[in-house]
Design brief:
105 residues, alpha/beta, 5-stranded mixed sheet, 5 strands, 26% helix, globular
């Protein structure tokens, strides 16, 4: 399964981002192959539509789940239509490595 994690940076020591559409990076993690890919968010500073663009970007990577500190109100119906599960982790000190460990267990 492929999972996208909204991240503040491009390392395992980065923390989860509180803003899905405006995060700095998306970490794409494959639970089967254990492969990790860091994708810069090209629309993080967009005036509008950042969330929808973020969904299109991660959906193009065939993810089944997205983990973020929060999602905008327009995102849920879009993810539902794509059959992508949203997971909210409110602990903004949680590191990417910690989230990957949770996914592996």
């Amino acid at each position: 399964m492929r999972v996208a994690i909204a991240s503040t940076g491009n390392s395992l020591e980065s923390t989860i981002s509180h803003h899905f559409g405006r995060c700095d990076y998306f970490v794409i993690y494959d639970t089967e192959s254990k492969a990790i890919e860091y994708i810069p968010n090209p629309r993080k500073d967009a005036e509008e539509g950042a969330g929808q663009s973020a969904v299109q970007l991660v959906a193009s990577r065939n993810v089944q789940k997205i983990i973020s500190g929060d999602f905008g109100i327009k995102i849920k119906p879009l993810l539902d239509s794509l059959r992508i599960q949203m997971i909210v982790i409110k602990d903004n000190k949680k590191k990417i490595n910690d989230i990957i460990e949770m996914l592996n267990h």
